[in-house]
Write a structure and sequence with these properties.
The chain has a 6-stranded mixed beta sheet. Strands 14-11-15-19-18-16 form a 6-stranded mixed beta sheet, with helices on both faces. It has a 5-stranded mixed β-barrel with strand order 20-22-21-23-24. Strand 21 and strand 22 form a beta hairpin. It is elongated and about 95 Å long. It is an alpha/beta fold. It contains 7 helices and 24 strands. Helix 3 packs parallel to helix 6 and helix 4 crosses helix 5. The chain binds adenosine monophosphate and magnesium ion (MG).
Length: 382
Amino acid sequence: LPSSVSNFAFGMVIKESTCFDNSAMDGFAVRSQDTFGASESQPALLDVTGKIGMGDMPGDIELSMGQAARIWTGGCLPRGSDAVVMLEYTAPVDNNTIEVFRAAAPLENVIERGEDCRRGSPVLYSGTVLRPQELGLLAGLGITRVQVRRRPLVAVISTGDELVPEDASPAPGQIRDMNSTTLAGLVEKSGGRPVRLGIVDDSPDAMFAACSRALEMNADIVLVSGGSSVGRRDFTLRVFERMEGTEVLAHGVSIRPGKPTILARCGNTALFGLPGHAASAVVTYLLFVHYLITLLLGRDPELSLKTICVRCSQPFPSSAGREEFVRVRLDDGQHGCCPSAKPVYGKSGLISTLIKADGLLVIPRDVEGLHQGEEAEVLLFP
Ligand code: AMP
Ligand code: MG
């Protein structure tokens, strides 16, 4: 599958994608030394001994001094030749002779055997995402089966009495469920397989049933957005605790946004209670869930989100005690400087802030804000 993750234990090429030197141009295969010093005013004269058809091995053609052979892009270089002169730099003199107006350096316009992948050298490493180009490379090597990691199955549940599906018309007091769509999309991006289990009411029994269903499906990860705080109508924690064998690892993390986040495990399944606010749900997803999926896929989790160094376009206030993730928009850095980051202010329920922003600027926990011009780290949205 495209964007599966390879699980190569070895990753060594045992064969080459192209096992012959071939031409990168239409023209004439030559011995480069025969063209040395050739110019418009003093062309080299070469005898044409034959032509090399596409897909042919030029078995009996071997160039001796002063000889050339007609060749096309991808054609196999005949023995004796070490360069190709582009057709444009030649002119016919008669049926068997050409003039060459330009010297060809050794290996000019030649793709060497094994140049793409050399025998014995690694091509893909364990943990590589198989994008179309990796799959093309494997096809070129004739490798049609590779071992890949299973994509983690991620159950996505939204909870809230006020939520209605996105194709429904909300009555006063109701809102459409955004998080199911956002989180399922993010799961896909991370390399997981989302399963949307829909909306459940703020009812412990309904939520318990939905989470149990996720476990029955052998979900690797369960995401519940909404109800993760300590309010009277917040049941996620209680439901997680009610599931047999659950260990709650954290309820409340010192980050902003995203404080009311629950991390728990039930056997081999990771349970996440994410805040309902659209932007908080995304931030906590990126920090915890994306990281875990990256880990499960065998990729380097440190590389799970791209980070870049930026300069603060203005002061970023922050209170010590919580790590802050400020939504920021990046401008091109001037004079080769790193980009400058501008805050996108807005409440954590506003998903539009995530559309205006490029990533999250990190203010460490024990730092009381950043000064204008100070360098900082930004986690880029995937
Ligand atoms: P909660 O975390 O349940 O206290 O919800 C916090 C806020 O997020 C409330 O305003 C909810 O209406 C809103 N919210 C919760 N779940 C969703 C969702 N799936 N889509 C959009 N907004 C939500
Ligand atoms: Mg709620």
